[in-house]
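QA checklist item 7 of 12: single-chain prediction sanity check.
[x] sequence parsed
[x] length recorded as 128
[x] structure emitted
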Amino acid sequence: MKTSAKPSHIGRKISKIRELRGMKQEALALAIGVSQQTISNIENSEEVEEEVLVKIAEALEVSVEGIKNFNEDIVLNIISNTFRDNSSVINYGCTFNPIDKVVELYDKLLASEKEKFEYLEKLFKDKL
C-alpha cells in the first residue's frame, strides 16, 4: 500500500509563523503593501508566488526557506522541551560555553600580570 506525502500548504505555514510572531493580518498586510483580505487569501492558498513569499518572509523576519520548511510539530516540541512549569523554573539553554569564558578571563589576567611585571621591571631598571 502506497501512502502519498501530505502536500505542503504554504499559506497555513505563513499563518502559523505570523501568529507565533504575534502579528495580525492587518499588520502583515500593511508591511507588504496589500489589503488584509489579500493576506487572508494568501493564508488559505496552498501555493504562493515567490515574489510575494519573499516580501512576506522579510516582513515576518524569517527566511523564505524558513517558511517553506516550517513544521509546527517541531516548534511545539522545542517549546515543550525548553519551557517547563516546575515551580516557575524556566529551563534556558546556555548561550555561551562557560569554559570559553574561563579561558577569556584567564587570558585577561595573564595580560594584566604581564603589564604589571613589565612596569615593575622598568621601574627597577630606572632605579639602577
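[x] summary fact logged: The CA atoms of residues 61 and 93 lie 23 Å apart.
[ ] second reviewer sign-off
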